[in-house]
Amino acid sequence: MARAAVPGRLGERLRWRPAELTGRRAESALAHTLAFDVPGWPGHLAGQHVDVRLTAEDGYSTQRSYSLASAPDADRIELTVQRVRDGEVSPYLADVLDVGDLVEVRGPVGGWFVWRPEQTEPVLLVAGGSGLVPLMAMVRTRRAAGSKAPFRLLYSVRSPEDRLYVSELDGSEPGLETVCIYTRGAPAGWPRPAGRLAARDLSEAGWPPRSAPLCYVCGPTGFVETAADLLVDLGHAPERIRTERFGPSGG
């Protein structure tokens, strides 16, 4: 049974909880989706994230933040972790953590960069690389809730091999339009040459400003700043643009 996060219970949400890995699946050569059971999970909203803490036998601990990839689903959460070269946490999560192993999680965290099923206005999702993860939680929440809110997703990724959630973003879901742009290597015959996100991409694949869409942009800092500026230049109201960015964290 789905359960939404309860506003105001800050102490409850910031308590560390044991999380048991119950399954994993590969999304790309570098990324895996990890499913955890978290007893007593307070619920979350699409777009929120969690802190994950690892503790060694000698007491050393380290933590990283990861976006939630799943729709609300009782005590079960999913994270998609992309391995960072020479990283400290992501290689362990992506390659070593086994079913039945425990980590600790804290959250959910965040209240601005979220989408709720009761929202009905058009939505534009703009993802750069693994910035797709929290936006995928929005797509899945929309699907689980049976929402009719029209979604459009513009997904910027290096190459076809780097794409996440390929089977779910195959263009068959009613009310969800997905356009991929490739920055390093496009497939043979692809209608758009490889290159960085441009105003034309947002104009052609996104909603016109007169539709007053709610825009969610997530990815590396440079990508997010560029995309947000382009949206404003195209006439979208700044207050209708919500951004989430990430940068180097040690992996």
UniProtKB/TrEMBL annotation:
Residues 14-115 form the FAD-binding FR-type domain. Keywords: 2Fe-2S, Iron, Iron-sulfur, Metal-binding. The keyword Iron-sulfur applies. It comes from the Bacteria. Gene3D superfamilies: Nucleotide-binding domain of ferredoxin-NADP reductase (FNR) module, Translation factors. Coiled coil: none annotated. Its cofactor is FAD. InterPro entries: Cbr1-like_FAD-bd_dom (IPR008333), FAD-bd_FR_type (IPR017927), FNR_nucleotide-bd (IPR039261), MRET (IPR050415), OxRdtase_FAD/NAD-bd (IPR001433), Riboflavin_synthase-like_b-brl (IPR017938). CDD domains: FNR_iron_sulfur_binding_3. One of its GO terms (molecular function) is oxidoreductase activity. PANTHER family: NADH OXIDOREDUCTASE HCR, PROTEIN RFBI. This is Oxidoreductase.
